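Lab manual, section 2.4: Encoding a predicted structure.

Procedure: take the sequence of the chain (322 residues), apply the prediction step described in section 2.3, and record the output as structure tokens. A sample record is shown.
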Amino acid sequence: MFKKDSTPSLADTKQFQPPWLLHAAASRSGILSLSKLWPWGVIDTRTQNTQEHELLAQGGITVVGSPITPNTETSAHSPVLAEIMDVDIDSHGNYIHTLVIRNGGKSVEAEAQPRHNLVMTHGYFTGVGFFYRNYYDLSQVEGWDIYSIDWLGMGRSSRPTYKGCRAEGEDKRVSHAEEVFVESLEEWRKRMGIEKMTLCGHSFGGYMNSVYALKYPQHVEKLVLVSPIGLPEAPPDLEERMRNGYSPSNSDKPKDGEPPAAPSKPSMQRVMLFRTAMSLWDRNYTPQWLVRSTGPFSRRLIDWYIGRFSLLTEEQRRGMAA
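Recorded output:
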């Protein structure tokens, strides 16, 4: 059931196919099927383990069996023990990458008495490492076991092929995409033997946790939403925006006493870029796929993305980017 510190197979890693919400409903028969022949962005298992353990160590977490430990000279607290495992969720080789901290990090053995379970889920384009600065403090709250997962198709979890259809209506596509994540979380809960849990989700994780809580309220003790995403009603001119590659701008709003200004026309480059991006998105090619496809140049894209977290030190940014 559990595989400790394992990693996706080469075939899984080459084909990054996570679905997501409205636009995750396309087959992989698009024009960019070269991803199946383009393995140069694959990172080996040992490197993945090392980078993950180093990042967690910066937050005071020591992974059981790892030679990497927090720097006691720079850490104000003693390290907390954690387990890293891949939890099988079906008979097709799919699994969810999981971090577990039990007993305040003093040991990895489960206690006999009932405990509270905190399950943390990350946002889109991130993973277990996103919360590395939070695990230590959370583990010090008595009576709680801490779990953190990589969503199916993200981070170091397996990447199953998404079997949606572009011809499906919007409601059906949304429902199907939600089901993929919600049911994988439910199967993970069963395999872990957790009866009730407090779900803490950031962004995309908050959205999916909410959907899970609506479907399985009997297994949710509390729901903690950290800057969750939301999906408002589609604007009436959505199709026009999709075709022409523009979004509403506050500058288009007229001032008091002035006639409405004509909306600025986007450049042809913007229109083509927008159409290309939406076409790839509809075919289930994601930002993660783009990063992986750039191979040795992917680090620059990741560094640019991580750069928005201005409070991190240079060492912490390197760890997040790894």
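Check your result against the sample. The radius of gyration is 21 Å.
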